[in-house]
């Protein structure tokens, strides 16, 4: 399950702005996008990842993604960062 990959990641950034920045800087290895997140927010990230060759993995819900990231609120997306 992809939530396990999120939990096992050494460093992860949550939220649209931070995840986008990590992809733009070229240090994100994979981005997790919640299927129930607003497409107006996620489509830009998905296109950016496709352009830069970053793997996109879809997860079922924002609530579950937030929980996997260790936060109390839902997360539309999260990026695994390679340092």
Automatic annotation (TrEMBL):
Family matches, as InterPro entries: Ribosomal_eL30-like_sf, Ribosomal_eL8/eL30/eS12/Gad45
SUPFAM superfamilies recorded: L30e-like (SSF55315)
Segments forming domain Ribosomal protein eL8/eL30/eS12/Gadd45: 5-82
Keyword Ribosomal protein part of the UniProt annotation: yes
Pfam families for this protein: Ribosomal_L7Ae
Keywords carried by this UniProt record: Ribonucleoprotein, Ribosomal protein
Domain of life: Bacteria
GO cellular component entries: ribosome
Protein name listed in UniProt: 50S ribosomal protein L7ae-like protein
Lineage: Bacteria, Bacillati, Bacillota, Bacilli, Bacillales
